[in-house]
Predict the structure.
Amino acid sequence: MDAAGWIFALGAGVAAGLAGWQAIRAQRLSAALREAAERLAARDAALAAARADNASLAAESDQIDTLARERAELQAENHRLIDAGKQAAQLLDAAPFPIWRRSDDGALVWVNRRYAEMTEASPADVVTRGIELASAHDPELPRSLARKAREAGQTMAEERRFVAEGDRRNYRIFEMPLEHGFLGFAQDITQEADARGQLRRHMEAHLEVLRTISTATAIYGQDKRLVLWNRAYARLWQLDEAWLEQRPTFGEVLEQLRAERRLPEQIDWQAYKQGQLALFTTVIERQEELMHLPDGSTLRLVISAYPSGGLFFAYDDVTRQLTLERATNTLTAVQRATLDNLYEAVVVFGPDGRLSLYNRAFAELWQLDDDRLNRQPHITEVLEWARPLLPYGNDWQTWRDQSVDGFAARRAGQGRLERGDDKAIDQASVPLPDGSMLYTYLDVSASVRIQRALRERNEALERTDRMNAAFISNITHELRSPLGTLISMTEVLSHGILGPVNERQAEYSRDIMQASRHLLRLLDDIIVIAAIEVGQLALEPENFSTADLWQEDAAQWRDSAEHHGITLTLPDAVQDNPCHGDLQRLRQALGSIMLAALNGTPQGGGLRLGITQITDGLTIEIESHSGGLAPIAPSRLFADLQPQPERRHGSANLSLLVARGLIELHGGSVTVLSQETGQTLQIRLPAAATAIAAPARPN
């Protein structure tokens, strides 16, 4: 029974006891009054017989007067007690709970109105019929409780469930033994019983859950004995389930765990044990701590007071969790250090729009304070802070709304942002798997300035190319036309078409003709070089044989070799391998090289031309030697054919420069090999020219 029930029982018992005491006192006074009346009648009879004895009469008269006064006092006390009894009966009759009295044999002798209402009968009918507040299946149960109270000599109580006023309810019945009979009353505890039943069912369900969860749990009662445990608890501490079924005390469990080296090592074991046992009297609120066990594992221990008394212990193995947390913290620190050392500015906004991660470059790029950023501001706040650096002016609100909408839609994108401080920033947005958005910013102001300078320089080069093209066009027209006219007129004069010329005039005409033709060749070389440089020289590829490269010029080369006293060796005319390229340009290049070699080879020397077909193209070798005399200086022969000639001045052979340009235009290469007595020029041409048509530069 709880405290409220006992207080109720005590109050009802006091009221009922008071009424019973008053009733008993009234009975005793009534008996004393009857005894006094009998004594007074006896005295009246004795008074008539003793009238002769005056002294005796006077003494009896005094006794009669005394008895008369006592009788009057007893009658007055009796009336008062009767009135008090009626008042007590009215008070008990008005009580909101049933009260009754029993005789010594347990029969009902009085009930209050509430008792009668519960039995749906009158008080007199209840007493006459002996209607008890009990189940119809066990009508003797109330009298048995009264007998137990008489045997124990104290108030006894028990709970009963029976039908009252058409409803099944729970009552706590009290029987109090008196000097004569018993006094009883009942307390309606239906709500309390229902609450206890609900609590019991809840506790049973709660305990069933505790038995099945993976968290190791144990409940120790007020006597410090094990009340409940689950299999996870036995597995965690490796305890025998049969031993746990014996309900060992908390101290015994501690000793067992210490013996098996399951608990952390303690300097003073007894002090530690006493401290653990003291938890049963000191723990009021929930406590939590970490236990580091000798096997390297870590447990999270939760201790809380159990509602029905004792303590509740819950153990979670958090070893893996702590390991992962340490690894995560390390990874986060590494990522933070990595981000802080990136040149690129990085910021991450979480799914709620608040800043979750940034690096130092971001704060410096947007001139933001770390104290502000560390408060995890919303993206709208960060945009407002960066507003002074952005050049949107009146369009600020529109741009801001577009930025926020892009974040909400988790759109990926990239672009360039021109800030108001003349900084160009490449930005990119990337949605992350957890709903966050990653933004990167790269200051490309220097690259933009370089690109702008390169663009301006390219425009200048394009203007130069256009000027070169115009120069080529002009020089072709302005120089070739007058030079052609000069050659034609000289031929007319030399042939005497306009009249006879003397020997001196004929010699001058020949010199003019020779100088004009040389000037025309130089002009052609300059035009070709300029066309190659500006990318306006186009090749006209065709199929030809190797013999086509040299046979038409062979007679001229032999005459020149014979004139200079040089031994000339040419390829075998039988060799005739197919080739592809611009035949006229290749003949021009080969002819210029052969003429330069003939002019540079000393008298008595030798010159050999070799052409070999290979799998991936054509190899042409021109070997010049001095014939045993002094070595040929490179500057006198093929120096202008090297990729980086040793000399670049007015004495350069323009024909060789043109030849090298034409060979490279075909995708070929030129290599000069120096020897002790001469030089060898090696030309490699691909099977098909890689630059058959040189790309024209933009106008």
About this structure: The two ends are 109 Å apart (CA to CA). Confidence is low (pLDDT under 50) at residues 645-650, 690-699. The first helix runs from residue 3 to 49.
